[in-house]
Amino acid sequence: MNLCDIKTVKQIMNMFHLTFHKEFGQNFLTDRMVVEDIAEECCTDENSTILEIGPGIGTLTYELALRRRQVISLEIDRGLIPVLSYTLGEFDNVRVINKDVMETDLQELLAPAFAEGPVSVCANLPYYITTPILMKLLESGLPFDYITIMIQAEVADRLCAKAGTKDYGAITAVLAYYGEAEKLFTVPADRFIPAPKVNSTVIRIRLHREKPCKPKNEAMLFRTIKAAFGQRRKTLINALGAGFSELTREELVSAVTACGHDVNIRGERLDIAQFTALSDRLNEILIQKV
């Protein structure tokens, strides 16, 4: 069964009396080479379990099942469950669960899989909920090997940006704390049905086995990053002033300069290691004030 063939997709949709749901961000891939490349590149260990989010009619799931030990797919659309039973019926290593990933206890779901071997994530994420899903995966604390996702090209630019570039932002810095992101390839809009209005990009995040940056207070690190980008056009010191109202300007100047930065530097110039050092200094100042 060629699930990348447009006629086949339409036949399946008609067979099960289905329509595309915009509220679920449903856009099905029709380029077999792209699907195969994603399945190949999503991780390095054939013995991996893959957590797939939003399998659709099973196009990517099919290729993952051929290549990996096990696939666990979360599908929010109840109407697609019988479709997936039909398209993936030949596989005994695929488990489809009708559930919203945002309401799923991933630790409980994946505990048996982690006990048996490595686990990675692979997904064609709906544009409207990309960041919440990604943050749920990162903040879960689960030791995924890789997170490979197809997302809006513009979002991919931000996630993979380097410090000091125009696309670099708070989400970039936070992601760098958890892992290292790289672009794999771009997928034109016309490779989907229905076609989205913008192109997509596949990125792969290799999660740190041991984080290279170890803040004294993780919550303070995230607070520092959020404040630094809260008023992007302002200098770092002025931006921090809005996010740390309990600190004086003199204390903020002291923290920034103690980390070796000019008083006029902007937040987008700092990489994750520099944000960690700054958050540690701010944390020390706050402790001293108590």
Describe this protein's structure:
- Helix content is 42%, strand content 17%.
- The protein contains 12 helices and 9 strands.
- The chain has a 7-stranded mixed sheet. The chain has a two-stranded antiparallel sheet with strand order 1-8.
- The longest helix has 18 residues.
- The radius of gyration is 22 Å and the shape is elongated.
- It starts with 5 loop residues before the first helix and ends with a helix.
User: Could you give the order of the helices and strands?
Assistant: HEHEHEHEHEHEHHEEEHHHH
Strand order, main sheet: write it out.
Answer: 4-3-2-5-6-9-7
Percentage of β-strand residues: 15-25%
Low-confidence stretches: none
Oligomer: single chain
Q: Which sheet architecture does the biggest sheet show?
A: 7 strands, mixed
Question: Any descriptors?
Answer:
290 residues; alpha/beta; 7-stranded mixed β-sheet; two-stranded antiparallel sheet; 42% helix; elongated
Q: In a nutshell, what does this entry contain?
A:
This protein has 290 residues and is α/β, with parallel strands linked by helices. Helix content is 42%, strand content 17%. The protein has helices at 6-15, 32-41, 59-67, 81-87, 106-116, 130-139, 153-159, 170-178, 218-230, 236-243, 249-258, 272-289; strands at 28-29, 49-53, 70-74, 94-97, 119-124, 146-152, 179-187, 192-193, 200-207.
